[in-house]
Amino acid sequence: MRVRIHIIFGFVFLLFGCAPKVFNYESVKKDDLYFPSKQDSVELGLKCQLNSSTNKWYSRNLHCLDEPILFKNKSKGYEVYRFTHIPTWSGASSYRIQKKDSVVQIEYSHCSGQGGYEAGRLYEWKNKKLTIKDWIEFQKMIDSLCFWRLEANGERRMFDGETYILEGLIEGEYHFVERDTPNQFEDTTEFAKVCSFLEELYYKN
C-alpha cells in the first residue's frame, strides 16, 4: 500500500513540476531506528549515538516523514544533510539537501500529528532542484559551525520545547547533532541558523 501511495505521489508531483528523484535509499521498516545506538557506534566507528527511548521517539517522526536512514548508508558519491524539526505540539518537518555530481536537490516533508506525542501521517512532500551555488553557501555555514566536531547530544533545556536535529552524510561518513530549542539560547543560536537556512533555501527557490 505504501508503495502504491508513493507511485501516486510521484505522478502528482511530476505534473506540478517537482524535480525528478535521482537519489535512491533503502526502504525503512516501521521499527527501524534512524540514529546509531551505542552498539552501532562501536561497530561502525561513529562518534555519535542516542539512547534507546530518544532514538525511538525521533525515529517515529522520521518514519512518518517517510525519510531514509542515513547513518547506515555507505554509498559513495552522496553528499547529504538533513534538518529535522520536531516541535512538541505540531507536526514534525524535515528538509534534506543532497548533492550527487552536479545535481543538487532539497526534499521537504511534513507530518500531520504532534511531534512530542503521536507523529500522525505524512501530510506533505515536495522536492526542488537547487544550484551548486546554494550547496556551496550551505557548506560554508557547515564549515563555519564546525559541524563535524560538535558534540552530538545536547541537554534538555525546555519543557514542551522543540528539537532540532542536523545530520550529515558525506562519502559514507556520518554525524548528527541534536539540540533542544536552540533558537532560544545564545550558545546554540548559530546551530539554529544553519538548520533554518535549509528551510530558507527550500522556500526561496
Tally of separate helices: 5
What is the alpha-carbon Rg in Å? 16 Å
Give the topology string: H per helix, E per strand: HHHEEEEHEEH
How many individual β-strands? 6
- Inertia-based shape: globular
User: Segments where pLDDT lies below 50 for 5+ residues?
Assistant: 1-17
Look at the helices and sheets and give the structural class: alpha+beta
Strand-residue proportion: 25-35%
Strand order of the largest sheet: 4-3-2-1-5-6
Cα separation of the termini = 32 Å
Quick take:
This protein has 205 residues and is α+β, with helices and mostly antiparallel strands.
Give a structural overview.
The protein has five helices and six strands, in the order αααββββαββα. By secondary structure, it is an alpha+beta fold. A six-stranded antiparallel beta sheet has the order 4-3-2-1-5-6, sandwiched between helices. Residues 1-17 have low confidence and may be disordered.
Secondary structure blueprint with pairings:
Elements: H1 2-15, H2 38-44, H3 52-64, E1 79-87, E2 93-100, E3 103-111, E4 122-130, H4 132-145, E5 162-170, E6 173-180, H5 189-204
Antiparallel strand pairs: 1-2, 1-5, 2-3, 3-4, 5-6
Helix pairs in contact: 4-5
